[in-house]
Specification:
This protein is of the alpha/beta class. Helix content is about 40%, strand content about 20%.
Length: about 475
C-alpha cells in the first residue's frame, strides 16, 4: 500500500479529458497531488466516463487512499442559431434582431431558439454573445423576438453562447441531458455532482430529490441570480463551486474577487466545502510554467481558506497536465508554510453555531493547540463531524475515520482531512485504538505522541458527536487504561 500523505490542507481537483485519459496519466496526476477527479459531462460519452471512473477506482485500490470523483453536469446551454453566409461583424450602434425564425441569420438578425429568454426579457436588459465579447441592449421585445442595439461590437458566428445577466430565466437547472447524465453518474457511484447554472435553492432541492442520497451536491455559482440568493443556495447544498468563468461574463470582472471572498467565508462559516475554479493556471494549457499573476491567484484562494482549488482545461486538454497539478501542489505547500497564512486563517475563523458537535470540535482544536498533539481523529458516519473539524481550520492534521468508503471519498474534497476507511466499532475505547493505528500507519504519530479522538456515543447514530479524549497513539497504553 502506498502512503501518499499530503503536506498541505487545501485539496486539488483535476479535470480529466483527452490529455489525461490514460491510467498512467491519472496515476501521475494523483501522485503529483490531485485529491479529487472531475468528470466533465459536457464532453465525452457515458462509455468514456465509465472507463475513467473505473481507472480511478483501480488506482484508489492500488494506493490505499480514498479518491473523490466529481461529475460536472452541463446545465442549460443557451446558443444562437446559424448564419447563412458565415460569421458577421456587428458595429457599435447597429440594430440587431433575435427571434424564433429558424431561417439562417445575417448581419441584421439571427435565430435564438430559446422562447424562455424572450418571455423573460425586458427593455434595458443585456444579451452577451460569445463569452461577453459582443454586448447587445434590448430596445423592444415580445414573447417571440427582441430588437437590440449593439453596445460592444465584434464578430459573431454559428451557435455562439448567449448569457442573459439581467434577468432570472425560467429555466430548470437540469435539462433532459442532465437528468440522463445524473442518473448514469449516480448509478456509477460518483461522490459529488456539480450542478451548473444554479439560480435558486429550489434548483438544488430538485436535484437532491433525484439523487436520493446517492451523491453529494456542489452548486456552481456562476450567475448573478445565484449570488443574490446565495444564503439559501448554500444552505440547500452540500458544497459550492465559485465558477469564475461565467461569473466574469455576466458580472463586471471587478466584482468577481469580492464575490469569491464572500463565498469562501460564507461556506467556512456554514462548515461546507468550497471550490475555487476556472483559469487558475490557464497559461499552462500551452506553457510548462504559469504566469506570476496565476500563481498569485491560486495563492489568494488558499490564503482565504478555500477547501479546494480546481484545474479545468489545464489538466483535461493541456500539454502539461501533470506539471499543472505539481505546480498547484507546490504553491499550496509554500503558502501554507507561511506564518501569515495561519494569521489570516485564524483571524477569519467564525464562532460556533451552538450545537454539541460544534462545541466538541472547537474544543478539540483548542486542546490540540494548547498541548502538543499530533492529530485530531474524528469518527464519522455521515461526514458532518469531520467537516466541523475542518471548519475550525486547526494547526494539526485531521484524520477522518469512517466505516463507509462513500463517506471517505466525499470527504477527500474537504480542507485538511486525511480520510481513511476503518472497521465499524461499538465502543469508544476501540475507536481510540483504531485512531492510534491509522495515525501510526499513515505517518502522523508515533507511540509516544498524543492524539485527540472525537466520536459520538452511542455509535452508529449520525449527529451524536459528544465525546473527546486525549490519548497516546499506543494501543497497549489504551487497552491498559481506564475502560471507556
Amino acid at each position: 500500500m502506498t502512503n501518499l500523505r499530503r503536506r498541505r490542507c487545501v485539496k486539488i481537483v483535476a479535470t480529466l479529458g483527452p490529455a489525461s485519459s490514460s491510467r498512467e496519466t491519472i496515476m501521475a496526476l494523483f501522485e503529483a497531488g490531485a485529491d479529487v477527479f472531475r468528470l466533465n459531462m459536457s464532453h465525452g460519452s457515458h462509455e468514456e466516463t465509465a472507463r475513467r471512473h473505473g481507472m480511478i477506482r483501480e488506482i484508489e485500490h492500488e494506493v490505499g487512499r480514498p479518491i473523490g470523483i466529481l461529475a460536472d453536469l452541463q446545465g442549460p446551454k443557451l446558443r444562437l442559431g446559424v448564419f447563412g453566409d458565415g460569421p458577421v461583424t456587428l458595429a457599435e450602434g447597429d440594430g440587431f434582431r433575435l427571434d424564433l425564425d429558424e431561417t439562417p441569420g445575417d448581419a441584421r438578425r439571427v435565430h435564438l431558439p430559446h422562447r424562455e429568454i424572450f418571455e423573460a426579457l425586458e427593455p434595458g436588459a443585456h444579451l452577451l454573445i460569445n463569452d461577453g465579447k459582443v454586448r447587445l441592449r434590448v430596445e423592444r421585445c415580445d414573447g417571440e423576438s427582441a430588437e437590440t442595439v449593439v453596445e460592444v461590437g465584434g464578430v459573431i458566428s454559428d451557435r455562439k453562447g448567449v448569457n442573459v445577466p439581467d434577468v432570472v430565466l425560467p429555466l430548470a437547472a437540469l435539462t433532459e441531458k442532465d437528468r440522463r447524465d445524473l442518473e448514469f453518474c449516480c448509478a456509477l457511484g460518483v461522490d459529488w455532482v456539480a450542478l451548473s447554472f444554479v439560480q435558486r435553492a429550489e434548483d438544488v432541492v430538485e436535484a437532491k430529490e433525484l439523487i436520493a442520497g446517492r451523491s453529494a451536491i456542489v452548486s456552481k455559482i456562476e450567475k448573478p441570480a445565484a449570488v443574490t440568493n446565495i444564503e439559501a443556495i448554500v444552505e440547500a447544498s452540500d458544497g459550492v463551486m465559485v465558477a469564475r468563468g461565467d461569473l466574469g461574463v455576466e458580472l463586471p470582472v471587478a466584482q468577481v474577487p469580492q464575490i469569491q471572498k464572500k463565498l469562501v467565508r460564507l461556506c467556512r462559516r456554514k462548515g461546507k466545502p468550497v471550490i475555487v475554479a476556472t483559469q487558475m493556471l490557464e497559461s499552462m494549457i500551452t506553457a510548462p510554467v504559469p504566469t506570476r499573476a496565476e500563481v498569485s491567484d491560486v495563492a489568494h484562494a488558499i490564503y482565504e481558506g478555500a477547501d479546494a482549488v480546481m484545474l479545468s482545461a489545464e489538466s483535461a486538454a493541456g500539454e502539461y497536465p501533470v506539471e499543472a497539478v505539481a505546480t498547484m501542489n507546490s504553491v499550496a505547500e509554500t503558502v501554507e508554510a507561511d506564518p501569515i497564512y495561519r494569521e489570516i486563517i485564524e483571524a477569519s475563523r467564525t464562532k460556533s453555531l451552538g450545537t454539541t458537535a460544534e462545541a466538541i470540535m472547537s474544543a478539540a482544536r483548542e486542546v490540540a493547540e494548547t498541548i502538543k498533539v499530533n492529530a485530531i481523529c474524528c469518527f464519522t458516519h455521515s461526514g458532518r463531524t469531520a467537516m466541523l473539524a475542518a471548519r475550525e481550520r486547526p494547526r494539526v492534521p485531521i484524520l477522518a475515520l469512517t466505516p463507509f468508503k462513500t463517506t471517505a471519498r466525499r470527504l477527500s474534497l474537504v480542507w485538511g482531512l486525511h480520510c481513511a476507511a476503518v472497521e465499524e466499532v461499538e465502543r469508544f475505547k476501540l475507536a481510540v485504538v483504531s485512531a492510534a493505528r491509522v495515525a501510526k500507519r499513515d505517518g502522523f504519530a508515533s507511540e509516544t505522541d498524543k492524539i485527540v479522538v472525537t466520536a459520538g456515543v452511542p455509535f452508529g447514530q449520525p449527529g451524536t458527536t459528544n465525546i473527546l479524549r486525549v490519548a497516546l497513539a499506543d494501543e497497549r497504553a489504551i487497552y491498559e487504561g481506564e475502560p471507556a
